[in-house]
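Researcher: Re-running this chain for the archive, since the previous output was lost when a drive failed. Same request as before.
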Amino acid sequence: MFEALYFKSLEESKNFIASNHSKGILLFASDQIVRDLSQYAGENVVLCSTAGEFTKEGYKEEVITGFTYDRGVASIVELENPSIRNINELRKAYDKVKDNKNAFMLLLCNGLAAHEESIISTFFFIKDDFKIVGGSSGDYLQFKETLIYIGKKKVDSVAIFFDCKSRTQLVKENIYKTTEKKLLVTEADPLSRTVYKFDNVPAATKYAQLIGIREEKLADSFSNHPLGRVIKQNTYIASPMKVNPDKSITFYSQILPNTFVDVLEPADLDNCFHNTINMLEFKPTFIFSVHCILRSLKFKEEHSWGKLDSKLLQVCKNQSGFISYGEQIYKKHLNQTMVLLAIE
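Model: Regenerated structure tokens:
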């Protein structure tokens, strides 16, 4: 039912779109390619810009990846800003699939609007165990404009509900472990995703002290020491984006005041990849994965992408995915994570 797509040129993907009007098509590519493809896309096509692509040959850059699906099993809902405007369409699409334990929603959010949490709050009527997987659109680190299209229409975000008949499973992979060092958020603005103080000390000062480095070197340590919210032995990562002149820190996801966060450090990659594969409860026929841009940059620097490619592709060759500016799993938005949907 789900068939992975992989094109190396714009022309290839244009030809495929032109000859497959009856199929649902979801494609991921750079912002420029997405912009060009939108001119040829019908209502059966959803496009999303990325910061890298995952294909049936593993991690790639500047290619087009995606998958096809039976249009009869999918309901596409445009999400405006704010997404509460689309509450009726969301309820209608959810009601069609809510009794199917294998159904899922693919959620693609505007990667530069910083309103993923606001969108997720619109899903208050959806059961907590309903499968939601997704990512935030990217633009190859230009941070100018990310793109999502339904056909030729540019949209802010999109939710696609799939009434899948085969067994499905969601998996979350972290490559970090807690140092057991904790910070109490004593002053923060969740809407701007900014923390002003940890333990009543300017955020950058306290963060640097706790990991034992000079304050001016803090930004260089973000990829190895992100912060995490540990909930029932599950770690949900919030990645620091930048240190501001007033020593506050802006993050890629919300951190709430009066909560504790753990300082994290890298875990053993081979063990992490091995454990992810062992979490799969069945032999998948299709895998869709979303990978954080910060993970991707770390993998590129350490030449680790090949290891993950090998592990995932050994399980299933029929794969697609993309590098995102944030990840969604169930009703949580997080960073520096891989989220994976497996379909039997």
